[in-house]
Design a protein that fits this description.
Blueprint (H helix, E strand, L loop, with lengths): L14 H8 L4 H6 L6 H9 L3 E4 L5 H10 L5 E7 L7 H8 L10 E7 L1 H10 L7 E6 L8 H12 L6 E4 L15 E9 H10 L5 E8 L2 H4 L12 E4 L6 H8 L7 E6 L6 H11 L5 E10 L5 H8 L5 H6 L3 E7 L3 E2 L2 E2 L2 E8 L1
Parallel strand pairs: 1-2, 2-3, 3-4, 4-5, 5-6, 6-7, 7-8, 8-9, 9-10
Antiparallel strand pairs: 10-14, 11-14, 12-13
């Protein structure tokens, strides 16, 4: 048994141990719980300079207290959310905090933000230290103003240390050449021309996630062929392109190691995908897909078996170890109308 006399007191533990624990806690927990336990924790909480201000879920009283009590220079992560539960949070925050003093910020998350407040934040904060940024512009702002586009392009996209960006309005951005972003998440559909632009401008890009890629022929007739050798992960959440166009797109990303697609039945051809991946995506180690097929009536087991059979070849089950599942749901006949039957195909790794 440990001698209680030899057990080190909290007063003698190095401050670095506490700070390492604080790194896993949000500002509310540190300030309203840990800080109140003893005089040592009180002093440590006041001296801590890596605060995570996550205001996406917080009471108004705690929000106001944190804004008044913690020095902006000690904040490294900021999350603001103008949600129904706490509307106008960004406006109140800007009225209480001198954001020019947020000099150590490396993570910035803004949800449902108004364009005017976004412009104010991006132009006043020292953005050079930002590494990760998530911006969700309010749905009420259907179109981005010229000022907002200029601010986003000049003050955000071109940041030298920015490595991860998530945004819901990316279509009208002008991507600077040799952009430093490594991980890009676009919560909207983009055109093929924008996809080609991303490949050309973002040479450091490793991960790309988009909702869909739209075919707009008038915009891509003169698109250059750019092979992106650094992109290793691609996710398209709701793809509607024809399989020929999908293949031509994937030919530009030969270094993919992870590919996730959610698509329609016409793209679901096991043998064709096997041949394409085997020849053109030799580094692909994870291929996840989800395909929901709606039928105008019953589908026989023979038809489903014929569809799933190509995915039982040695390429899928032994070489890649990608196992494809098929689930079929049968619905009822209501008011002289067929309720559509559904089959779902997906991979399990």
């Amino acid at each position: 048994m440990t001698d209680e006399k030899n057990t080190p007191s909290i007063e003698f533990l190095p401050a670095e141990i506490f700070y390492r624990i604080f790194d896993y806690l949000d500002a509310s927990t540190i300030f309203f719980s840990v800080r109140q336990t003893c005089r040592r924790c009180y002093d440590l909480a006041n001296a801590y300079n890596r605060y995570n201000f996550d205001f996406s879920s917080i009471s108004k009283s705690e929000f106001a207290c944190l804004c008044r009590s913690i020095e902006p220079e000690n904040v490294t992560s900021l999350t603001l959310a103008d949600e129904r539960r706490y509307p106008n949070q960004t406006e109140i925050f800007l009225s209480m905090v001198d954001i020019r003093r947020l000099i150590r910020l490396h993570t910035l998350n803004l949800f449902r933000i108004d364009q005017s407040y976004l412009n104010s934040i991006l132009t006043q904060i020292n953005m050079n230290s930002i590494v990760s940024c998530h911006i969700q512009i309010s749905n009420e702002d259907s179109n981005l103003s010229y000022t907002t586009l200029q601010t986003l392009s000049s003050r955000l996209i071109s940041l030298p240390n920015l490595r991860k960006l998530e945004h819901n309005r990316f279509m009208n951005f002008v991507c600077p050449i040799n952009c430093s972003i490594h991980h890009l998440i676009i919560n909207q559909s983009i055109t093929l021309s924008k996809f080609y632009e991303l490949l050309a401008a973002m040479s450091h890009l490793k991960t790309l996630v988009v909702n869909d890629i739209l075919k707009m022929p008038m915009l891509i007739t003169n698109a250059p062929v750019i092979f992106h050798r650094n992109l290793t992960s691609l996710t398209i959440d709701d793809i509607h392109l024809k399989v020929d166009l999908i293949e031509s797109l994937l030919l530009l990303t030969p270094s993919l190691q992870y590919l996730k697609l959610i698509f329609s039945y016409e793209l679901f051809n096991g043998q064709r995908w096997e041949e394409f991946i085997d020849v053109n995506l030799s580094q692909l180690t994870r291929f996840e897909f989800f395909c929901s097929v709606v039928h105008q009536g019953d589908v026989s087991k023979a038809v489903l078996e014929q569809t799933i059979a190509p995915f039982r070849s040695s390429f899928w089950t032994e070489k890649k170890k990608w196992y494809v599942n098929c689930e079929s749901s049968t619905w009822s006949f209501v008011e002289n109308k067929y309720i559509l039957h559904q089959s779902v195909f997906n991979t399990s790794l």
